[in-house]
Amino acid sequence: SQQGEEDPQALSIQEGENATMNCSYKTSINNLQWYRQNSGRGLVHLILIRSNEREKHSGRLRVTLDTSKKSSSLLITASRAADTASYFCATDAGGTSYGKLTFGQGTILTVHP
Amino acid sequence: SAVISQKPSRDICQRGTSLTIQCQVDSQVTMMFWYRQQPGQSLTLIATANQGSEATYESGFVIDKFPISRPNLTFSTLTVSNMSPEDSSIYLCSVGYSNQPQHFGDGTRLSIL
Fold first, then answer.
1. Which of B37, B98, B101 sits opposite A33 (nearest CB)?
2. Interchain contact, B97 vs A99, CB within 8 Å
3. What is the pLDDT of residues A39-71, one digit of tens each?
């Protein structure tokens, strides 16, 4: 079963706007990772945030993590049509389960030119 | 980051047949994982493939249906046996490190007629 939930399930915005996607999970984690998937192809790794971190940035991406609320958010600023894709969060519980990722349901982002 | 090559990229198979998917990594890795992504769904872990030991399967997946080989630290195969239309999915391999980004192959898109 999936550990996490993501919302919204689908997001439609105009180019230049910001997109925010949220992810919730149920058990303690070692890290949380965000991925992008274009049209059912392979996954592209975006950002990894460890359980002792609260915020990370990479280019136009900003990820936050609130372990007390078991939630994370991905913000894409100044979106582009090329950002159109499905976005997934995935948690790694660590310990004997390290590397085993549990994925959220994903958010389908559509950016209109 | 590791470069992961997966073959075939797609295939159309007849029900009742089996298909073996190959995953090659450009560096030695301890942990390799196999995931399934059913149409319109998120990813679900099938099993963990460790070199020199039997694969470890997640709940709902069994070795008779998804036999896995891991002959060395750079290669693994997943066989989908006795296929039915319900096995139509994208199958992805990945490599994982402790508390590091996990990277995925481009996936194998499998359709069963």
1. B101
2. yes
3. 868 899 999 999 999 999 999 999 999 999 999
